[in-house]
Design a protein that fits this description.
By secondary structure, the protein is mainly alpha-helical. The chain has two helices and two strands, in the order αββα.
Length: about 70
């Protein structure tokens, strides 16, 4: 199995686990807010969901970057 597919598999498993824990954690969240896009607004969502989902999205996007730093 190539390094890219291993990295993609581990990232998918890790972020899926984070997403499941996010849903479990927001069960009793009462603070809600709307996200204001340029055209529309979203429905009221818990703030913890907005912060958690943005962290997970950043983790997914960050897993695609390859930082190949070599000291020469």
């Amino acid at each position: 199995m190539s390094l890219f597919f291993k990295k993609l598999l581990y990232s998918t498993i890790f972020n899926s686990c984070l997403f499941i824990f996010l849903f479990i954690g927001i069960q009793n969240s009462s603070n809600k807010s709307k996200v204001d896009f340029l055209i529309n607004e979203t429905i009221e969502l818990p703030i913890s969901f907005l912060v958690g989902s943005s962290f997970i999205l950043g983790s997914i996007l960050g897993s695609f970057f390859d930082f190949n730093i070599k000291n020469e």
